[in-house]
Specification:
With about 525 residues, the chain is α+β, with helices and mostly antiparallel strands. It is about 60% helix and about 10% strand. The strands form two sheets. It has a four-stranded antiparallel β-sheet.
């Protein structure tokens, strides 16, 4: 068989070249997927998040069940004041004293929430899951432990601890809101005024414009005797409310208590601008003027107060006193008598009339009024003391002594009564009794030169020279009667035959101007 070249030979088959996926296609697919995800997230964000959440939760549940990893916490479902909300561990749960809340569900990997618990720090039980809790208990806990500092509105130091098998797997921040009302509530719940002050200060730190709380605080300061602090609060109130008449009135009272009479007058003038018909403001201003010794202005303002309120007998009495100070005795007497016509039982007006009569030397009138006072008040020791002065003015020695004795018997512990009784005994030539009363006076007022000179004179006239010398030596250096006392000392030493001391004292008497020593 003739074979031609090439016939019968098999051709070699070239292998087919495999095509790879072009890199551009991969990038395109990735871009399409990314764009699809972005668009899906834009148009259906919740569904995308849900898918992601489901995938993540499936992975975590698998790890929990099959690998023994701790369960993952996802969220708390809490009902607060009737409204439901979900909280993750990145969100804070805010509570105030008005809130009530309950943890209704805890979302974790644990099936049926087995071994899952929730502990709200500061209140409740060890496990607060599905337990109704009150914000007021948590606020009270914060206040009692002192974690709520001055001016703080939020205390972030508490948490809701989510536990699995008593081990914490998540913690939700718990913010406790403290309001000024919380501090007010606590201030009202205690009778300890110092504690109340601290609570009110914290309320003010949180709301500096609350004038009502400032007034409460000022009142507490006044009851604690801290008038300066009360003044500060009232001034702050007036900065916020310059036309607050109640605060101006209280401020004037504070100034009065602190004896800041110029400030009393200034504050009263501000009050009069707003309310020129307030009689008490004029009376307070008159009193302030009286304390400054400006009796003329006191008379004017007491008079204006009475023009607005003529029935105020106490102001009329004060006007009578102001008249006395300005020398208007008849006007003062007229005011006191007017008070007695309107109110016959007003003892202070009767005492004022008696004292004024005694002062001007009208002893019969004074005795009349003091007798009436003693008829009403038989144990009025002061009235007995003063009627004794009136009897003394009339030279009724027996009645004078008896009146002083009655005053002392009623336990009137006024040193001057003993002095007056001693002087009355002296006038009655009862030297021993006089000396005894002067010595009682000296026990009450040690070192009184008048009493010691009186005793010295009694001893000198009684020729008890050694005792007279003892008293004279104590008082002579500071006495205004040095010449006479040195002369008496010279004579007394001479009678005791102490001639050197006698000469020395006579020389001193001459030096101080005594011209009559030779008569000794």
């Amino acid at each position: 068989m003739d074979f031609r070249e090439g016939k019968g030979k098999k051709r070699a088959v070239k292998p087919r070249r495999e095509r790879g996926v072009a890199p551009g296609i991969i990038v395109l697919i990735a871009l399409i997927l990314f764009t699809s995800f972005v668009m899906a997230n834009y148009f259906w964000p919740e569904k995308v998040r849900d898918l992601y959440f489901i995938a993540s939760r499936l992975k975590n549940t698998f790890s929990f069940i099959f690998l023994g990893h701790p369960p993952q916490f996802y969220y708390l479902e809490i009902e607060k004041n009737g409204r439901d909300s979900r909280l993750t561990k990145s969100e804070a749960f805010v509570v105030s004293y008005r809130d009530e809340f309950v943890i209704k569900d805890i979302s974790t990997d644990a099936l049926f929430s087995r071994k899952i618990s929730a502990d709200v720090e500061g209140i409740g039980r060890e496990n607060d899951f599905k337990i109704l809790l009150k914000g007021i208990d948590l606020v009270d806990k914060v206040i009692m432990t002192g974690k709520g500092g001055e001016g703080e509105t939020t205390v972030p130091d508490y948490r809701i601890n989510v536990k699995y098998d008593n081990k914490i797997i998540a913690a939700i921040p718990l913010q406790v809101n403290i309001t000024p009302q919380d501090w007010l509530r606590y201030a009202r719940s205690t009778e300890n005024q110092r504690v109340q002050i601290e609570y009110l200060k914290r309320a003010i730190a949180m709301n500096k414009k609350d004038t009502g709380v400032r007034k409460m605080l000022a009142g507490l300061y006044l009851r604690q005797g801290e008038t300066g602090e009360a003044i500060t609060q009232y001034r702050d109130i007036l900065t916020l409310k310059p036309d607050d008449l109640t605060t101006l009135t209280e401020l004037s009272k504070c100034y009065m208590k602190e004896k800041e009479y110029n400030l009393v007058i200034k504050t009263c003038r501000e009050l009069i601008k707003s309310d020129p018909e307030d009689a008490s403001t004029f009376a307070n201003m008159a009193f302030a003027y009286s304390q400054l010794g400006d009796w003329r202005r006191a008379v004017v303002n007491y008079g204006e107060s009475l023009r607005l309120n003529p029935k105020d007998l106490l102001v009329r009495y004060k006007l009578g006193q102001a008249y006395e100070k300005t020398g208007k005795i008849n006007e003062a007497t007229g005011e006191y008598r007017f008070i007695l016509t309107k109110s016959p039982d007003t003892n202070y007006a009767m005492i004022a009339l008696a004292d004024l009569s005694l002062k001007i030397g009208n002893y019969d009138e004074a005795i009349k009024w003091y007798k009436e006072i003693l008829r009403r008040q038989p144990r009025n020791a002061g009235a007995y003391a003063n009627i004794g002065l009136a009897y003394g003015g009339k030279r009724l020695l027996k009645e004078e002594i008896e009146s002083y004795q009655r005053a002392i018997a009623l336990n009137l512990k006024e040193p001057v009564i003993h002095f007056n009784l001693a002087a009355a005994y002296e006038k009655g030539k009862q030297s021993q009794k006089a000396t005894a009363e002067y010595q009682k006076f000296l026990k009450m007022k040690p070192g009184d030169s008048d009493a010691m000179e009186r005793i010295a004179e009694i001893d000198f006239n009684g020729k008890r020279y050694d005792q007279a010398i003892r008293y004279y030596e104590k008082i002579v250096k500071n006495s205004k009667r040095k010449a006479d006392i040195y002369a008496n000392l010279g004579f007394a030493y001479g009678e005791l035959k102490k001639y050197r001391q006698s000469c020395e004292n006579y020389e001193k008497a001459i030096r101080y101007g005594n011209k009559n020593i030779y008569s000794n």
